[in-house]
Amino acid sequence: MAGMSPLFRRKGPAPQDRLVTLIGKPGCHLCDDAQEVVEKVCGDLGVPWEKRDITEDAGLHALYWEQIPVVLVDGEQHTFWRVNEDRLRAELTGN
């Protein structure tokens, strides 16, 4: 779509209309690191986010216990283990 008028470019949802979900568990240092990144990026962009604990949800535990922390964007897996600030920001802004 390079070279197309901005009028015709398809845009995704605005950042504030997205939802980031951080899936982790207490006592997980990678989860703490991931939360810092999620809080910063979501705070900068005005994106709502939530934290889910795999120890309190058998379904999440079954899906993600080997990958935590896991970050979902709008319910789709974005990343796991380490969260890259620039990559998350690009996903949320469409850049």
From TrEMBL:
Pfam families referenced in this protein's UniProt entry, alphabetically: Glrx-like
Cleavable signal peptide: none
Listed InterPro entries: Glutaredoxin-like (IPR008554), Glutaredoxin-like_YDR286C (IPR052565), Thioredoxin-like_sf (IPR036249)
PANTHER family listed in its UniProt record: GLUTAREDOXIN-LIKE PROTEIN C5ORF63 HOMOLOG (PTHR33558:SF1)
Protein name: Glutaredoxin family protein
Lineage: Bacteria, Bacillati, Actinomycetota, Actinomycetes, Kitasatosporales
